[in-house]
Every structure is written in structure tokens, then in C-alpha cells.
Design a protein that fits this description.
The complex is a heterodimer of chains A (247) and B (244). With 247 residues, chain A is an alpha/beta fold. Helix content of chain A is 38%, strand content 29%. Chain A is globular. Chain B is 20% helix and 45% strand. The longest helix of chain B has 17 residues. Chain B is of the alpha/beta class and 244 residues long. Chain B is globular and about 55 Å long. Classes of the chains: A alpha/beta (247), B alpha/beta (244). At the A-B interface, helix 2, strand 7 and helix 3 of A face helix 2 and helix 3 of B.
């Protein structure tokens, strides 16, 4: 589904990713763990196509397409979802309006008919209920005045509505209390643990992986994957720290 | 509103940012339309200017009267809208103006609010979106007379530049001769938040759709409470579609 080969990327002229390779197949959940500054968020932003994240070498193939040749909105329409570590506040734009326009923009790019207002609201209610987010929150401006936990749950509601084939979730667990962590974890499973879908979880900690069980755990350090293992690798990291495991 | 007798020059503060060549074509300017809103009365007006032109409106609000003027100055060359409001005791005045310029448009909102008696309230909200080589100017004046105590006046002027070649001018002027008044003003010129745009695009919106959504929210505030809010919003949205 996603094949990253020898990816090099830099931010403001500083090389961050230095030959990262990773293959994710449909049906799999991969976790990427690593110390601060290893390049975890850069990987997420590079896959999402954020301006300023320049690819200087390597390739990324997503569902048979050259992902790096696509604009951010085209990547979304192709089935990629990037969960932000810090979801952005957009004053004056309601979640409902934004998500309906976004979903219909994706559908248009895929040559599908737009959803009507009624159909969209039904979908939004269903996904909000899944993440236990009050529908009133979705009528408010995007992320404005939301707590850290509400922002992350709203991200997962967005993911549920947009229904991507592949989700890159950048520290979705940061800023969550214990209950919200479980709700988000269950949401990720319900939305993404489906045939033909896959997830790349970027995280510092083992705790999200208690809810969303990874098939593979990778350690990212110095811009490359330095170790790959099964779920037990996350436990080993938790116990011994990155330095000992990645050395 | 003072009579303009001779073709102004750049030396005149009120005309410094005007398109003088266009002004010469439009000369002589029409007299300001003068409206007296009687005590306790209400007046509402929407001004849509989408071609070369100068619109001038002068309001006198009697005791306890209210007026709401909404302006869409939507480009198409030189567009200047002058509004003057004189507020008597307890009167209430709202101005909500949106300027949307591209190409080499020169757009101006010139507002003067005179609080001549106690207890009147006024709000001015001006939002400009400027692309290309366009220039958008807001000259906003609030004058509070010596005995106009209890005045509550507010002015908020913000501009969004879509291109580095566009220009926004904001000149707030407060002239306060009374004690015990509240006068607030703020102005800001900025660009669309790049991270916000990327966030919207990462969810599937094309760059123009993402910009349009953010700008729609930016200008919407100015039309809040207008009698034909929906029509003004729709016209603004159409024009924004051309600018992004």
C-alpha cells in the first residue's frame, strides 16, 4: 500500500530524514517510535506534503501512485489522512461546513457525486458518537477553544468522516487523559481496522499501543529506521529507553 | 460631510491614497446623500459598489435612533465609499464594510462618526482582502464632542493581503473632547495563516477552496446583522472566488 524507499528530506536546509525505508501493506498497523528530534513529525509532514518539507532523495509510492508528485489535497483524495500532533484552529469556519466541503472536494476529485446536507449530517453524527464528541462541538469553529483532548477526538471524527485508506497519526496520544486515550484508540480501531486499510502511528509512548495493537514497531533515530520488531519491541523500549535499544 | 470643491491632490490627507486619475474622470463628485433618521427611528442601507465610483452618504441620527450601513466595495477600478454619521443622544450606529480588490483596484472606505451628544454608541468593522496590485484604504474617524459623555465607540480595521504586491492602508483617528467615554480601536494587516491553509488542504480542499473558506470567515463578521446578509455574503463569496 505504502512504500517508502531511501527517503531523504530537509527542513530549512537542514537534513532530517536520511535514507528512511518502510513498507506498509493493507491490513497492517505500524508504529514508529523514537526520541525527540529523530524525524518522526517530519516523516508525517513529508508524507502529507507540507510546504517547506523538501524531499531531496528517494521515493514514496502510495497505492501505485507517486505520492510525492501529488499536492496535499490530491494526497487526501487518493486516500491519505494526516492526523496532526497540534490540530490547527481555524476561526470563523465551523467544523460541519469545513468537513462537508472537504469531503465533497475529495469526492469531486474522485469523480463521485457530492453528499447532500442531510446525508452529511447523518454521517457526522455517527462519527461524533463513535468518538463521544458532542455534535454541538462540530457546529463550532474548527478547533477554536477545544481542549487538547477535544482536538484529538475531533481529528478522529474528521478521519471517520473522510474515511481514508491510510492514516498517518502523529502523536494522536499526546495531550490525552486516560479515558480520552481509550476512546481515541477504540475510534482508530473502528475506523481503520478494516480490510484494505492501514495505519502508521507515530508515538513516543507504549500506552496508545495497548489499545491499537501494532503488527510492527519501528525505531526511528537520526532520520532512519534503526530497528524493526513486533509489539514486544515497544515494551522493550518502554523498559530500557531509546538509547539502549537503538544503539 | 464637507463639500469638495476642487479636485484634490495627494497633499490632502483624506485623498492621499485615492486614484487621482480615476477621480478626474469621475469629477465633479455627487453631493452626499443626506438622510435624517428621526428620534427613535431606524435606518438600514446596503451599498454594493462594483465599478468606478464614489458613493457618499451622510446620516444624522436623532435621539435614540439607530442606523446600520453595510458596504461591499468589490473592486472594478476605483471605488470610494464615504460615510458620515452624526449621533445625537443615545443613538446607535453600525458600519460593516468589506473591500475585495484585485488587479490594480483602488478601494477606500472613509468613515466619520461624530458623537455630538451623550450616551450614543457606534461600531465600525472594516475587512479588506487585497490581491494583485490592489490598494485598500480605511480612513476611520471618531470624534467625541465635549459634552458627549457616556459615548461608547468601537472601530476594528483588518486587512488580509493575498499577494506581497497588494497594499493596505489604515488610518484610525480619534478625537475625544469628553471624559468618561469608551473608545476602542484596533487595526491589523496580515496574510493567510500558512499552517491553516495546509491543514485545510490536507483534508482535501484545493488551494483556492481552502483560501476561500478562510477568507469567507474573515469577512463574514462585517455583514453580521445586515438585513440582506445572505445576499451580501453571496456577492462577496463570488468575488472572493475570483481573487484566490
Amino acid at each position: 500500500m505504502l512504500q517508502i524507499t531511501d527517503l531523504h528530506a530537509e527542513v530549512a536546509g537542514k537534513p532530517i530524514l536520511k535514507g528512511l525505508s518502510l513498507t506498509v501493506n493493507a491490513g497492517e498497523v505500524h508504529a514508529i517510535m523514537g526520541p525527540n528530534g529523530a524525524g518522526k513529525s517530519t516523516l508525517g509532514y513529508t508524507l502529507g506534503g507540507r510546504p517547506g518539507y523538501a524531499v531531496t532523495g528517494g521515493s514514496v509510492t502510495f497505492l501505485g501512485q507517486d505520492l510525492l508528485a501529488l499536492e496535499p489535497h490530491e494526497r487526501a483524495a487518493a486516500g491519505l489522512f494526516l492526523g496532526f500532533q497540534y490540530p490547527v484552529e481555524i476561526p470563523g469556519v465551523s467544523n460541519v461546513q469545513f468537513l462537508r466541503e472537504a469531503l465533497n472536494a475529495q469526492r469531486k476529485q474522485r469523480g463521485q457525486e457530492p453528499l447532500s446536507g442531510g446525508e452529511f449530517l447523518k454521517l457526522a453524527k455517527e462519527k461524533a458518537a463513535l468518538l463521544r464528541l458532542d455534535m454541538d462541538m462540530l457546529k463550532r469553529p474548527v478547533n477554536v477553544g477545544f481542549s487538547g483532548g477535544e482536538k484529538k477526538r475531533a481529528e478522529m471524527v474528521q478521519m471517520g468522516i473522510l474515511d481514508p485508506a491510510f492514516a498517518v497519526l502523529d502523536e494522536t496520544d499526546s495531550g490525552l487523559d486516560i479515558d480520552a486515550l481509550r476512546i481515541c484508540g477504540e475510534g482508530i480501531n473502528a475506523i481503520m481496522r478494516q480490510p484494505g486499510k492501514a495505519v502508521l502511528l507515530i508515538t513516543h509512548y507504549q500506552r496508545l499501543l495497548d489499545y491499537v495493537k501494532p503488527d510492527f514497531v519501528h525505531v526511528l533515530a537520526g532520520g532512519r529506521i534503526v530497528r524493526t520488531g513486533g509489539p514486544e519491541l515497544a515494551l522493550e523500549l518502554e523498559e530500557h529507553g531509546y538509547e539502549a535499544v537503538a544503539a | 460631510m464637507s463639500q469638495v470643491l476642487a479636485l484634490p491632490t495627494r497633499k490632502s490627507e483624506d485623498w492621499r491614497y485615492a486614484d487621482l486619475a480615476a477621480l478626474e474622470r469621475l469629477w465633479p463628485l455627487p453631493e452626499a446623500e443626506s438622510v435624517v433618521v428621526p428620534a427613535g427611528g431606524h435606518f438600514a442601507r446596503a451599498i454594493v459598489q462594483a465599478a468606478d465610483g464614489v458613493t457618499r452618504l451622510s446620516l444624522a441620527l436623532g435621539k435614540g435612533a439607530s442606523a446600520a450601513v453595510h458596504v461591499l466595495n468589490a473592486g472594478g477600478g476605483y471605488g470610494r465609499v464615504e460615510i458620515e454619521a452624526t449621533l445625537h443622544e443615545g443613538a446607535d450606529f453600525t458600519l460593516g464594510a468589506v473591500q475585495l480588490g484585485g488587479g490594480s483596484d483602488t478601494l477606500e472606505v472613509v468613515a466619520t462618526v461624530n458623537h455630538v451628544e451623550p450616551g450614543a454608541t457606534s461600531r465600525q468593522l472594516v475587512r479588506s482582502v487585497l490581491a494583485g496590485q490592489a490598494t485598500g484604504t480605511c480612513l476611520g474617524r471618531i470624534a467625541v464632542a465635549r459634552h458627549a459623555v457616556g459615548t461608547d465607540a468601537e472601530q476594528s480595521v483588518r486587512a488580509m493581503l493575498l499577494d506581497r504586491t497588494a497594499t493596505a492602508n489604515a488610518r484610525p483617528e480619534l478625537e475625544i473632547f469628553a471624559d468618561d467615554v469608551k473608545c476602542a480601536h484596533g487595526c491589523a494587516v496580515g496574510e493567510l495563516d500558512a499552517m491553516g491553509l495546509f491543514y485545510l488542504q490536507s483534508r482535501g480542499l484545493t488551494p483556492p477552496e481552502a483560501k476561500k473558506l478562510m477568507l469567507q470567515a474573515f469577512v463574514a463578521e462585517a455583514f453580521g446583522g445586515a438585513e440582506d446578509e445572505e445576499r451580501l455574503q453571496a456577492l462577496a463569496l463570488e468575488r472572493l472566488g475570483e481573487l484566490v
